[in-house]
C-alpha cells in the first residue's frame, strides 16, 4: 500500500482509495469497484465529506429497523469487504444480523475470498457460498442463499447497483441502502436510503443500535414509522445545492 502521510489534507480520502486498490490487488474487489469508488468520492465531495443530520436520522431508523427485524441480513460486496470489514462484523453482532456475500461481478473464487477475508477479520459465519436460491434477476446478483437474503425480512445493502434493491422491495422486504448518490435508482427505491459514505455510516448505525438496547418495541416502531424517506432524500439534495451555492460564492 502506498504510504500516505497523516498530515496530508486529504489523508482519509486517500487512505480509503488505497484500501480499494489493495482490495483489487488481492482479488476481493472488482475492477469496476474502482470506478464505483470514484463516483462515490465525487458525491462525497459535493456533500462536504461529512455525515449530515439527515444521514444520522436515516442511520438511526436503519438501526431501529435492524433491531426489529426477525431475519436481518447485511449484504457484502467487493467494495465493502475491502473498506469496512470490521465495521460490518461489529454491526452484525450488535443487531444479530447475518453477513452474506452477494456480488454483481460474481465468481465463486471471489465469493470465497471475501468469505475468508471476513472470517479472518473475526466473523463467526458468512453466508453467500451456497447460492441455492435465486431472486428474479437476470444477472449474478440474483444468486443468493435460501436461508440468507432470500428469506430475510430486512436487508442492508451498502453500495448497490439498483436492480436488486427494486427486486427485494418488490418481494416485500425492507431494504436499507448506503449510497452517496441520492439520485441513484437504489436511493430512489430503497425503504431507507442512507446518503453517507459507508466508511462513516456503519459505525453511526452500530452506535445508534447500542443506544437503543433498552428501548421497547413500541419506541422502535414509533421511530421507524415517523420516518419519511422521500423527505430525507430531498434534504440530501438540498444540502448538495446549498454546498454548491456556498462554494460558488467563495470563488468570487
Ligand atoms: O463487488 P461487486 O461485483 O458486487 O460490485 C460492486 C460495485 C460497487 C462495483 C457494483 O455494485 C456497482 O457497479 O455499483 P455502481 O452501480 O457503481 O453503484 C455504486 C454506488 O455506490 C454509486 O452510486 C456510488 O456513488 C456509491 N458509492 C461508491 N462508493 C461509496 C458509495 N456510497 C457510499 N460509500 C462509498 N464509499
| Name of the top-level CATH class of the domain at 53-227 | Alpha Beta
- For this structure, the quaternary state is single chain
Question: Which range best describes the helical content: under 10%, 10-25%, 25-40%, 40-55%, 55-70% or over 70%?
Answer: 40-55%
Bound molecule types: ligand PTJ
Count all strands and give the number: 8
Mean pLDDT: 95
**Gap between N and C termini, in Å?**
39 Å
Biggest sheet details: 6 strands, parallel
Low-confidence stretches: none
CA-based shape: globular
Count of DSSP-assigned helices: 11
Helix-strand pattern, N to C?
Answer: HHHEHHEHEEEEHEHEHHH
Structural category is alpha/beta
CATH superfamily caption of the domain at 53-227? Phosphopantoate/pantothenate synthetase
Give a structural overview:
This protein has a domain at 53-227: Rossmann fold (3-Layer(aba) Sandwich). It is 54% helix and 11% strand. It has 11 helices and 8 strands. It has helices at residues 11-25, 31-46, 53-68, 78-83, 85-94, 108-120, 163-170, 185-189, 198-211, 217-225, 229-251; strands spanning 72-76, 98-101, 126-127, 133-134, 143-144, 154-158, 174-178, 192-194. The strands form 2 sheets. A 6-stranded parallel beta sheet has the order 3-2-1-6-7-8, with helices on both faces. Strands 4-5 form a two-stranded antiparallel ribbon. Helix 3 packs antiparallel against helix 11. The longest helix has 23 residues, at 229-251. The relative contact order is 0.16. It binds ligand PTJ. Residues 30, 32-33, 36-37, 39-40, 43, 77-79, 103-105, 159-161, 178-181, 184, 197-199 line the site of ligand PTJ. The site of ligand PTJ has 25 residues, from helix 2, helix 4 and helix 9.
